[in-house]
Amino acid sequence: MDSGFTYSNKDMRRSVVVVGLATSQAQFLNSFEHELRHLCDDIAVASGMPMQGEEVAYLTGDVNSLLWADVHDFVCCKCNCLKLQS
Fold first, then answer.
1. How far is the CA of 33 from the CAs of 12, 51, 60, in angstroms?
2. Which residues lie closer than 8 Å to 4 by C-beta, 6 or more apart?
3. What is the pLDDT of residues 18-72, one digit of tens each?
């Protein structure tokens, strides 16, 4: 519970991100954002992006937006209220 991991093979330019079951929406978001940071760091290093620059910040936002449909149900309190009560 409340954990995840990220593995990146920079030579193959492939990554796997796993976020486990969470005890709350907030904890899921915490784990997701933690793993997203690892993913973006790995992409930045493999691509030669400066870690302190805007490129990594935009990359993080772009990846977050691309994954929104996949994580929405895990973090949206309004959408999950009925699911959590049953």
1. 24, 17, 9
2. 17, 18, 19, 20, 31, 32, 34, 35
3. 999 999 999 999 999 999 999 999 999 999 999 988 999 999 999 999 999 899 8
Domain map of the chain by residue range?
4-85
Please tell me the distance from the alpha carbon of residue 42 to that of residue 38, in angstroms, as a whole number. 6
| Separation of alpha carbons 53 and 59, rounded Å | 11
Q: Whole-model pTM?
A: 0.83
Burial 24-34 (b: 16+ CB within 10 A, else e): ebeebbebbee
Residues 50, 55, 57, CA angle at the centre, nearest 5°?
Answer: 105
To the nearest 10°, report the CA torsion of 26, 66, 42, 31: 10
